[in-house]
Design brief:
The structure is a single chain. The protein has 15 helices and eleven strands. It is α/β, with parallel strands linked by helices. Strands 1-3-2-4-6-5-10-11-9-7-8 form an eleven-stranded mixed β-sheet, with helices on both faces. α2 runs antiparallel to α3, α5 packs parallel to α6 and α7 runs antiparallel to α15. It is globular. The structure holds glutamine. The site of glutamine (GLN) has 13 residues, from loops. The site of glutamine has 13 residues, from loops.
Protein backbone atom coordinates (compact mmCIF):
# COMPACT_ATOMS: atom_id res chain seq x y z
CA UNK A 1 0.00 0.00 0.00
CA UNK A 2 1.18 3.55 -0.72
CA UNK A 3 2.33 5.28 2.44
CA UNK A 4 0.14 8.25 3.35
CA UNK A 5 2.93 10.80 2.84
CA UNK A 6 3.49 9.43 -0.68
CA UNK A 7 -0.02 10.35 -1.81
CA UNK A 8 -0.75 13.22 -4.19
CA UNK A 9 -2.85 16.12 -2.94
CA UNK A 10 -5.60 14.97 -5.30
CA UNK A 11 -5.70 11.46 -3.81
CA UNK A 12 -5.36 12.67 -0.22
CA UNK A 13 -8.12 15.26 -0.67
CA UNK A 14 -10.55 12.61 -1.87
CA UNK A 15 -9.49 10.07 0.78
CA UNK A 16 -9.76 12.62 3.62
CA UNK A 17 -13.26 13.52 2.48
CA UNK A 18 -14.14 9.82 2.30
CA UNK A 19 -12.75 9.41 5.87
CA UNK A 20 -10.30 6.71 4.75
CA UNK A 21 -7.81 8.20 7.23
CA UNK A 22 -7.55 11.39 9.28
CA UNK A 23 -5.55 14.57 8.71
CA UNK A 24 -3.69 13.79 11.95
CA UNK A 25 -2.61 10.40 10.57
CA UNK A 26 -1.53 12.05 7.32
CA UNK A 27 0.50 14.76 9.02
CA UNK A 28 2.06 12.19 11.39
CA UNK A 29 3.29 10.29 8.33
CA UNK A 30 4.86 13.50 6.99
CA UNK A 31 6.37 14.36 10.38
CA UNK A 32 7.99 10.92 10.53
CA UNK A 33 9.28 11.20 6.96
CA UNK A 34 10.69 14.66 7.73
CA UNK A 35 12.42 13.50 10.91
CA UNK A 36 13.91 10.57 8.98
CA UNK A 37 15.18 12.85 6.20
CA UNK A 38 17.53 15.16 8.11
CA UNK A 39 20.23 14.26 5.57
CA UNK A 40 18.33 16.11 2.86
CA UNK A 41 18.27 19.40 4.84
CA UNK A 42 15.10 20.20 2.90
CA UNK A 43 12.90 21.21 5.83
CA UNK A 44 14.91 23.38 8.18
CA UNK A 45 12.28 23.93 10.87
CA UNK A 46 9.52 21.58 11.84
CA UNK A 47 7.07 22.61 14.54
CA UNK A 48 5.38 19.29 15.33
CA UNK A 49 2.89 20.87 17.73
CA UNK A 50 1.75 23.37 15.11
CA UNK A 51 1.41 20.63 12.48
CA UNK A 52 -0.66 18.40 14.79
CA UNK A 53 -2.85 21.30 15.88
CA UNK A 54 -3.49 22.32 12.26
CA UNK A 55 -4.29 18.70 11.43
CA UNK A 56 -6.70 18.39 14.37
CA UNK A 57 -8.51 21.53 13.29
CA UNK A 58 -8.66 20.18 9.75
CA UNK A 59 -10.20 16.94 10.99
CA UNK A 60 -12.89 18.96 12.77
CA UNK A 61 -13.64 20.82 9.54
CA UNK A 62 -13.65 17.58 7.52
CA UNK A 63 -16.09 16.02 9.97
CA UNK A 64 -18.59 18.77 9.17
CA UNK A 65 -18.42 17.85 5.46
CA UNK A 66 -17.86 20.20 2.52
CA UNK A 67 -14.23 20.93 3.46
CA UNK A 68 -12.08 22.98 1.02
CA UNK A 69 -9.60 21.25 -1.32
CA UNK A 70 -6.53 21.71 0.85
CA UNK A 71 -8.18 20.86 4.17
CA UNK A 72 -5.80 18.58 6.08
CA UNK A 73 -3.07 18.67 3.39
CA UNK A 74 0.47 18.99 4.84
CA UNK A 75 2.50 21.67 3.01
CA UNK A 76 6.10 22.86 3.32
CA UNK A 77 6.49 26.64 3.24
CA UNK A 78 9.54 28.27 1.67
CA UNK A 79 11.43 30.37 4.24
CA UNK A 80 10.55 33.53 2.27
CA UNK A 81 6.82 33.54 3.16
CA UNK A 82 6.13 35.36 6.42
CA UNK A 83 4.23 33.03 8.72
CA UNK A 84 2.94 34.88 11.76
CA UNK A 85 4.74 33.89 14.92
CA UNK A 86 7.11 31.48 13.13
CA UNK A 87 10.71 32.40 12.43
CA UNK A 88 11.10 33.45 8.78
CA UNK A 89 14.45 34.59 7.41
CA UNK A 90 14.85 33.93 3.67
CA UNK A 91 17.82 31.69 4.55
CA UNK A 92 19.84 34.77 5.54
CA UNK A 93 21.73 35.47 8.75
CA UNK A 94 20.70 39.09 8.47
CA UNK A 95 17.21 38.01 9.50
CA UNK A 96 18.36 35.78 12.37
CA UNK A 97 15.67 35.82 15.02
CA UNK A 98 13.04 37.59 12.89
CA UNK A 99 9.54 36.49 13.84
CA UNK A 100 6.96 38.12 11.55
CA UNK A 101 4.08 39.83 13.31
CA UNK A 102 1.96 39.28 10.18
CA UNK A 103 1.09 36.53 7.70
CA UNK A 104 1.72 36.56 3.94
CA UNK A 105 -1.48 36.71 1.91
CA UNK A 106 -0.70 33.44 0.13
CA UNK A 107 -0.11 31.44 3.32
CA UNK A 108 -3.17 32.97 4.96
CA UNK A 109 -5.21 31.67 2.01
CA UNK A 110 -3.72 28.20 2.52
CA UNK A 111 -4.49 28.18 6.25
CA UNK A 112 -8.02 29.42 5.54
CA UNK A 113 -8.52 26.28 3.48
CA UNK A 114 -7.33 24.18 6.41
CA UNK A 115 -3.88 23.26 5.05
CA UNK A 116 -1.34 21.95 7.57
CA UNK A 117 1.97 23.81 8.14
CA UNK A 118 4.51 21.00 7.73
CA UNK A 119 7.63 23.08 8.21
CA UNK A 120 9.91 25.66 6.69
CA UNK A 121 11.62 24.80 3.43
CA UNK A 122 15.29 25.54 2.75
CA UNK A 123 16.20 27.95 -0.08
CA UNK A 124 19.03 30.08 -1.45
CA UNK A 125 19.69 33.25 0.56
CA UNK A 126 17.08 35.84 -0.47
CA UNK A 127 16.22 33.46 -3.36
CA UNK A 128 19.47 34.29 -5.13
CA UNK A 129 20.91 31.15 -6.64
CA UNK A 130 20.22 28.02 -8.63
CA UNK A 131 21.58 25.34 -6.29
CA UNK A 132 20.41 26.13 -2.74
CA UNK A 133 24.08 26.47 -1.77
CA UNK A 134 23.85 30.14 -0.71
CA UNK A 135 21.53 29.23 2.20
CA UNK A 136 22.50 30.14 5.77
CA UNK A 137 21.31 26.62 6.70
CA UNK A 138 23.68 24.92 4.25
CA UNK A 139 22.67 23.28 0.99
CA UNK A 140 19.55 21.21 0.60
CA UNK A 141 20.30 17.84 -1.01
CA UNK A 142 18.50 16.33 -3.99
CA UNK A 143 16.74 13.06 -3.06
CA UNK A 144 17.77 11.83 -6.54
CA UNK A 145 21.26 10.38 -6.70
CA UNK A 146 23.06 8.25 -9.28
CA UNK A 147 26.33 7.53 -7.48
CA UNK A 148 27.74 8.40 -4.08
CA UNK A 149 27.87 12.14 -4.77
CA UNK A 150 25.29 14.51 -3.31
CA UNK A 151 23.46 16.47 -6.00
CA UNK A 152 21.78 19.85 -5.80
CA UNK A 153 17.97 19.98 -5.92
CA UNK A 154 18.37 23.29 -7.78
CA UNK A 155 17.40 26.68 -6.45
CA UNK A 156 16.33 28.90 -5.14
CA UNK A 157 13.35 26.77 -4.04
CA UNK A 158 15.58 23.70 -3.55
CA UNK A 159 14.16 22.78 -0.14
CA UNK A 160 10.58 22.96 -1.43
CA UNK A 161 11.39 20.72 -4.41
CA UNK A 162 13.41 18.22 -2.35
CA UNK A 163 10.65 18.07 0.30
CA UNK A 164 8.00 17.24 -2.31
CA UNK A 165 10.17 14.75 -4.24
CA UNK A 166 11.08 12.96 -0.99
CA UNK A 167 7.44 12.96 0.20
CA UNK A 168 8.07 15.02 3.34
CA UNK A 169 5.07 17.18 2.46
CA UNK A 170 2.35 16.69 -0.14
CA UNK A 171 3.11 20.04 -1.76
CA UNK A 172 5.20 23.14 -1.10
CA UNK A 173 5.11 26.86 -1.70
CA UNK A 174 7.94 28.36 -3.72
CA UNK A 175 8.79 31.61 -5.50
CA UNK A 176 10.18 32.30 -8.95
CA UNK A 177 12.07 35.45 -9.95
CA UNK A 178 14.13 33.93 -12.76
CA UNK A 179 13.34 30.23 -12.63
CA UNK A 180 13.37 29.29 -8.95
CA UNK A 181 10.20 27.20 -9.13
CA UNK A 182 10.76 25.56 -12.51
CA UNK A 183 14.47 24.71 -12.33
CA UNK A 184 14.28 22.88 -8.96
CA UNK A 185 11.14 21.09 -10.19
CA UNK A 186 13.09 19.90 -13.25
CA UNK A 187 16.02 18.72 -11.09
CA UNK A 188 13.81 16.70 -8.73
CA UNK A 189 11.20 15.14 -11.04
CA UNK A 190 8.41 17.35 -9.70
CA UNK A 191 5.92 19.81 -11.23
CA UNK A 192 6.48 23.54 -10.69
CA UNK A 193 4.28 26.36 -11.97
CA UNK A 194 4.96 30.09 -11.93
CA UNK A 195 1.69 31.87 -12.65
CA UNK A 196 1.29 35.16 -14.53
CA UNK A 197 2.82 38.13 -12.73
CA UNK A 198 0.07 39.55 -10.53
CA UNK A 199 -1.85 36.28 -10.00
CA UNK A 200 -0.52 35.73 -6.48
CA UNK A 201 -0.13 38.49 -3.96
CA UNK A 202 3.45 39.35 -3.01
CA UNK A 203 2.31 40.72 0.37
CA UNK A 204 4.35 39.17 3.16
CA UNK A 205 6.79 37.45 0.80
CA UNK A 206 10.30 38.77 1.43
CA UNK A 207 11.19 40.77 -1.70
CA UNK A 208 14.08 39.93 -4.04
CA UNK A 209 13.25 41.72 -7.35
CA UNK A 210 9.71 43.01 -7.04
CA UNK A 211 8.88 43.34 -10.74
CA UNK A 212 9.85 39.70 -11.35
CA UNK A 213 8.94 37.86 -8.10
CA UNK A 214 5.94 35.51 -8.27
CA UNK A 215 4.67 32.88 -5.88
CA UNK A 216 3.69 29.41 -7.03
CA UNK A 217 3.61 25.78 -5.87
CA UNK A 218 5.82 22.71 -6.35
CA UNK A 219 3.83 19.49 -6.59
CA UNK A 220 3.78 15.82 -7.50
CA UNK A 221 1.38 16.17 -10.44
CA UNK A 222 -0.21 18.74 -12.73
CA UNK A 223 -3.61 18.24 -11.09
CA UNK A 224 -2.04 18.90 -7.67
CA UNK A 225 -0.49 22.07 -9.12
CA UNK A 226 -3.90 23.21 -10.37
CA UNK A 227 -5.49 22.63 -6.96
CA UNK A 228 -2.76 24.31 -4.95
CA UNK A 229 -2.22 27.24 -7.32
CA UNK A 230 -5.92 28.05 -7.31
CA UNK A 231 -5.83 28.27 -3.52
CA UNK A 232 -2.82 30.64 -3.63
CA UNK A 233 -4.15 33.11 -6.24
CA UNK A 234 -6.47 36.07 -6.00
CA UNK A 235 -6.61 39.83 -5.84
CA UNK A 236 -5.13 41.51 -2.79
CA UNK A 237 -5.42 45.21 -2.03
CA UNK A 238 -2.17 44.95 -0.05
CA UNK A 239 -0.15 44.37 -3.26
CA UNK A 240 -0.53 47.13 -5.83
CA UNK A 241 0.62 44.79 -8.64
CA UNK A 242 -1.95 42.12 -7.77
CA UNK A 243 -4.40 41.44 -10.60
CA UNK A 244 -8.10 42.10 -10.03
CA UNK A 245 -9.04 39.27 -12.43
CA UNK A 246 -11.22 36.53 -11.03
CA UNK A 247 -9.44 33.23 -10.40
CA UNK A 248 -10.92 30.57 -12.65
CA UNK A 249 -11.21 26.90 -11.78
CA UNK A 250 -7.75 25.68 -12.79
CA UNK A 251 -8.87 22.03 -12.72
CA UNK A 252 -11.68 22.75 -15.20
CA UNK A 253 -9.90 21.82 -18.45
CA UNK A 254 -7.68 19.00 -17.21
CA UNK A 255 -8.26 16.06 -19.51
CA UNK A 256 -9.67 18.21 -22.34
CA UNK A 257 -8.54 17.35 -25.87
CA UNK A 258 -5.52 19.20 -27.22
CA UNK A 259 -6.85 18.98 -30.76
CA UNK A 260 -6.29 22.26 -32.55
CA UNK A 261 -3.95 23.70 -29.91
CA UNK A 262 -0.98 25.44 -31.47
CA UNK A 263 2.34 24.82 -29.75
CA UNK A 264 5.37 26.93 -30.65
CA UNK A 265 8.95 25.64 -30.68
CA UNK A 266 11.31 28.64 -30.38
CA UNK A 267 14.41 28.11 -32.50
CA UNK A 268 16.52 30.44 -30.34
CA UNK A 269 16.28 28.00 -27.42
CA UNK A 270 18.54 25.58 -29.27
CA UNK A 271 21.62 26.99 -27.55
CA UNK A 272 25.25 26.16 -28.30
CA UNK A 273 26.65 23.30 -26.31
CA UNK A 274 23.27 21.99 -25.22
CA UNK A 275 23.58 18.23 -24.55
CA UNK A 276 22.01 16.02 -27.25
CA UNK A 277 19.78 14.32 -24.70
CA UNK A 278 18.10 17.64 -23.80
CA UNK A 279 17.40 18.23 -27.47
CA UNK A 280 16.07 14.67 -27.80
CA UNK A 281 13.67 14.95 -24.89
CA UNK A 282 12.44 18.30 -26.24
CA UNK A 283 11.74 16.72 -29.61
CA UNK A 284 10.02 13.78 -27.95
CA UNK A 285 7.77 16.20 -26.06
CA UNK A 286 6.83 17.93 -29.32
CA UNK A 287 6.06 14.57 -30.96
CA UNK A 288 3.82 13.61 -28.04
CA UNK A 289 1.89 16.86 -28.27
CA UNK A 290 1.48 16.23 -32.00
CA UNK A 291 0.15 12.72 -31.23
CA UNK A 292 -2.38 14.38 -28.91
CA UNK A 293 -3.69 16.42 -31.82
CA UNK A 294 -1.77 19.67 -31.28
CA UNK A 295 -0.21 21.53 -34.17
CA UNK A 296 3.53 22.09 -33.72
CA UNK A 297 4.92 25.27 -35.26
CA UNK A 298 8.41 26.75 -35.43
CA UNK A 299 8.54 30.20 -33.87
CA UNK A 300 11.16 32.85 -33.33
CA UNK A 301 11.85 34.79 -30.12
CA UNK A 302 14.82 36.81 -31.36
CA UNK A 303 15.58 38.72 -28.16
CA UNK A 304 16.20 35.49 -26.21
CA UNK A 305 19.97 35.84 -26.50
CA UNK A 306 19.93 39.06 -24.48
CA UNK A 307 17.55 37.86 -21.76
CA UNK A 308 20.08 36.50 -19.30
CA UNK A 309 22.29 39.60 -19.43
CA UNK A 310 19.30 41.91 -19.00
CA UNK A 311 17.93 39.80 -16.12
CA UNK A 312 21.27 39.95 -14.31
CA UNK A 313 21.09 43.76 -14.48
CA UNK A 314 17.43 44.22 -13.54
CA UNK A 315 17.20 41.62 -10.76
CA UNK A 316 20.30 42.88 -8.87
CA UNK A 317 19.19 46.51 -9.36
CA UNK A 318 15.86 45.80 -7.68
CA UNK A 319 17.53 43.62 -5.05
CA UNK A 320 20.01 46.34 -4.09
CA UNK A 321 17.11 48.65 -3.41
CA UNK A 322 14.91 46.06 -1.66
CA UNK A 323 17.73 44.89 0.59
CA UNK A 324 18.61 48.43 1.74
CA UNK A 325 16.10 47.96 4.57
CA UNK A 326 18.31 45.41 6.35
CA UNK A 327 20.41 47.83 8.33
CA UNK A 328 20.41 46.52 11.88
CA UNK A 329 17.62 48.87 12.95
CA UNK A 330 14.29 47.24 12.21
CA UNK A 331 14.71 43.57 11.38
CA UNK A 332 16.73 40.66 12.64
CA UNK A 333 20.40 40.91 13.30
CA UNK A 334 22.56 43.80 14.56
CA UNK A 335 26.33 43.32 14.63
CA UNK A 336 28.36 43.81 17.82
CA UNK A 337 29.54 47.40 17.90
CA UNK A 338 32.74 48.89 19.35
CA UNK A 339 32.94 51.83 21.74
CA UNK A 340 33.57 54.48 19.08
CA UNK A 341 31.12 53.08 16.53
CA UNK A 342 28.34 55.30 15.20
CA UNK A 343 25.39 54.70 12.94
CA UNK A 344 27.50 54.18 9.79
CA UNK A 345 29.53 51.47 11.50
CA UNK A 346 26.31 49.86 12.67
CA UNK A 347 25.01 49.69 9.11
CA UNK A 348 28.22 48.48 7.55
CA UNK A 349 29.18 45.96 10.24
CA UNK A 350 25.64 44.53 10.31
CA UNK A 351 25.45 44.20 6.54
CA UNK A 352 28.99 42.81 6.27
CA UNK A 353 28.24 40.12 8.85
CA UNK A 354 24.64 39.38 7.89
CA UNK A 355 24.72 38.94 4.13
CA UNK A 356 26.43 36.07 2.34
CA UNK A 357 28.82 36.43 -0.62
CA UNK A 358 26.27 36.00 -3.43
CA UNK A 359 23.89 38.55 -1.89
CA UNK A 360 26.75 41.04 -1.50
CA UNK A 361 27.72 40.46 -5.14
CA UNK A 362 24.16 41.23 -6.26
CA UNK A 363 23.96 44.36 -4.07
CA UNK A 364 27.21 45.62 -5.57
CA UNK A 365 26.15 44.90 -9.16
CA UNK A 366 22.75 46.47 -8.52
CA UNK A 367 24.21 49.59 -6.92
CA UNK A 368 26.66 49.94 -9.80
CA UNK A 369 24.07 49.65 -12.59
CA UNK A 370 21.82 52.17 -10.82
CA UNK A 371 24.59 54.69 -10.17
CA UNK A 372 24.30 58.04 -11.91
CA UNK A 373 27.08 57.52 -14.45
CA UNK A 374 26.01 54.04 -15.53
CA UNK A 375 22.23 54.06 -15.21
CA UNK A 376 21.51 54.60 -18.91
CA UNK A 377 24.22 52.27 -20.11
CA UNK A 378 22.97 49.34 -18.04
CA UNK A 379 19.62 49.74 -16.34
CA UNK A 380 17.79 51.71 -19.05
CA UNK A 381 19.15 49.39 -21.74
CA UNK A 382 18.15 46.30 -19.82
CA UNK A 383 14.63 47.71 -19.42
CA UNK A 384 14.43 48.29 -23.17
CA UNK A 385 15.49 44.70 -23.81
CA UNK A 386 12.83 43.58 -21.36
CA UNK A 387 10.18 45.44 -23.37
CA UNK A 388 11.38 43.76 -26.55
CA UNK A 389 11.38 40.31 -24.95
CA UNK A 390 7.76 40.92 -24.00
CA UNK A 391 7.01 42.06 -27.55
CA UNK A 392 8.55 38.84 -28.95
CA UNK A 393 6.05 36.77 -26.99
CA UNK A 394 3.14 39.08 -27.83
CA UNK A 395 3.98 38.66 -31.50
CA UNK A 396 3.93 34.90 -31.30
CA UNK A 397 0.73 34.78 -29.27
CA UNK A 398 -0.92 37.17 -31.75
CA UNK A 399 -0.30 34.50 -34.39
CA UNK A 400 -2.54 32.12 -32.47
CA UNK A 401 0.09 30.14 -30.56
CA UNK A 402 -1.45 28.73 -27.37
CA UNK A 403 1.73 27.70 -25.60
CA UNK A 404 5.47 27.36 -26.15
CA UNK A 405 7.47 24.20 -25.45
CA UNK A 406 11.13 24.38 -24.32
CA UNK A 407 13.49 22.42 -22.10
CA UNK A 408 13.43 23.73 -18.51
CA UNK A 409 17.18 23.57 -17.94
CA UNK A 410 20.26 22.99 -20.07
CA UNK A 411 21.36 19.99 -17.92
CA UNK A 412 20.17 17.58 -15.21
CA UNK A 413 21.06 18.21 -11.54
CA UNK A 414 24.75 18.85 -10.92
CA UNK A 415 26.85 17.96 -7.89
CA UNK A 416 26.98 20.01 -4.70
CA UNK A 417 30.07 22.19 -4.99
CA UNK A 418 30.46 21.69 -8.75
CA UNK A 419 29.62 25.26 -9.62
CA UNK A 420 29.81 27.09 -6.33
CA UNK A 421 33.44 28.04 -6.65
CA UNK A 422 33.46 28.40 -10.41
CA UNK A 423 32.81 31.65 -12.21
CA UNK A 424 29.37 32.84 -10.94
CA UNK A 425 28.29 33.25 -14.56
CA UNK A 426 28.34 29.42 -14.89
CA UNK A 427 25.61 29.28 -12.26
CA UNK A 428 23.65 32.09 -13.97
CA UNK A 429 23.61 30.06 -17.21
CA UNK A 430 21.24 27.60 -15.53
CA UNK A 431 18.50 30.18 -15.94
CA UNK A 432 18.85 30.56 -19.70
CA UNK A 433 15.44 28.99 -20.52
CA UNK A 434 13.50 30.35 -17.55
CA UNK A 435 14.31 34.07 -17.13
CA UNK A 436 12.50 35.20 -20.30
CA UNK A 437 9.21 34.09 -18.75
CA UNK A 438 9.73 36.34 -15.71
CA UNK A 439 10.89 39.24 -17.85
CA UNK A 440 7.63 38.98 -19.83
CA UNK A 441 5.46 38.25 -16.76
CA UNK A 442 4.07 35.06 -18.33
CA UNK A 443 2.94 31.81 -16.73
CA UNK A 444 5.34 28.87 -17.08
CA UNK A 445 5.27 25.28 -15.87
CA UNK A 446 7.92 22.56 -15.69
CA UNK A 447 6.90 18.92 -15.75
CA UNK A 448 9.09 15.81 -15.49
CA UNK A 449 9.87 14.55 -18.99
CA UNK A 450 12.09 11.53 -18.43
CA UNK A 451 15.52 10.54 -17.17
CA UNK A 452 18.91 11.61 -18.47
CA UNK A 453 21.43 8.99 -19.63
CA UNK A 454 22.82 8.98 -16.08
CA UNK A 455 19.41 8.38 -14.52
CA UNK A 456 18.43 11.86 -13.34
CA UNK A 457 15.15 13.71 -14.00
CA UNK A 458 14.84 16.19 -16.85
CA UNK A 459 12.07 18.75 -17.22
CA UNK A 460 10.13 20.26 -20.08
CA UNK A 461 8.75 23.78 -19.79
CA UNK A 462 5.48 25.04 -21.24
CA UNK A 463 4.99 28.81 -21.41
CA UNK A 464 1.42 30.11 -21.64
CA UNK A 465 -0.42 33.27 -22.58
CA UNK A 466 -0.93 35.83 -19.81
CA UNK A 467 -3.65 34.77 -17.35
CA UNK A 468 -4.34 31.58 -19.33
CA UNK A 469 -3.19 29.20 -16.60
CA UNK A 470 -6.25 26.99 -17.12
CA UNK A 471 -5.23 26.31 -20.72
CA UNK A 472 -1.54 25.96 -19.77
CA UNK A 473 -2.37 23.41 -17.08
CA UNK A 474 -4.59 21.52 -19.51
CA UNK A 475 -1.78 21.24 -22.08
CA UNK A 476 0.70 20.27 -19.37
CA UNK A 477 -1.73 17.64 -18.11
CA UNK A 478 -2.08 16.18 -21.61
CA UNK A 479 1.68 15.98 -22.00
CA UNK A 480 2.08 14.54 -18.49
CA UNK A 481 -0.40 11.75 -19.29
CA UNK A 482 1.50 10.94 -22.45
CA UNK A 483 4.96 10.99 -20.81
CA UNK A 484 3.86 8.85 -17.86
CA UNK A 485 6.91 9.71 -15.79
CA UNK A 486 6.83 7.04 -13.13
CA UNK A 487 10.50 6.55 -12.35
CA UNK A 488 10.99 6.18 -8.63
CA UNK A 489 13.95 7.53 -6.75
CA UNK A 490 15.93 5.29 -4.49
CA UNK A 491 15.30 6.26 -0.87
CA UNK A 492 18.94 6.31 0.28
CA UNK A 493 18.61 8.59 3.31
CA UNK A 494 16.89 6.31 5.85
N1 LIG B 1 18.69 31.67 -10.31
C1 LIG B 1 18.14 32.97 -10.50
C2 LIG B 1 18.88 33.96 -9.64
O1 LIG B 1 19.76 33.57 -8.97
C3 LIG B 1 16.68 32.96 -10.20
C4 LIG B 1 16.36 32.97 -8.77
C5 LIG B 1 14.89 33.02 -8.49
O2 LIG B 1 14.07 32.76 -9.38
N2 LIG B 1 14.56 33.42 -7.29
O3 LIG B 1 18.60 35.12 -9.66
Amino acid sequence: MTKLNELTITAARDALRAKDFTAVELSDACIKATNDAKALNAIVRLDEDRARLDAKNADALLAKGDAPNLCGIPLAIKDIYCVKGQQTQAASHILDGFIPPYESTVTSKLWEQGAVMMGTANMDEFAMGSSNETSCYGAAINPWKNDDRDLTPGGSSGGSAAAVAAHLALGATATDTGGSIRQPAAFTGTVGIKPTYGRCSRYGIIAFASSLDQAGPINKSVQDAAIMLEAMCGHDAKDSTSSPRAVPNFEADLGASLKGKKIGIPREYRVDGMPAEIDAIWEKGADMLRDLGAEIVDISLPMTKHALAAYYVIAPAEASSNLARYDGVRFGKRAELGAGDGINEMYSKTRAAGFGAEVKRRIMIGTYVLSAGFYDAYYTRAQKIRTQIKADFENVYAQGVDAILTPTTPSPAFGIGDMKDADPVMMYLNDVFTVTVNMAGLPGISIPAGLSSNGLPLGLQLIGQPFEETSLLSIAHGLESQIQFNSKLNQWWT
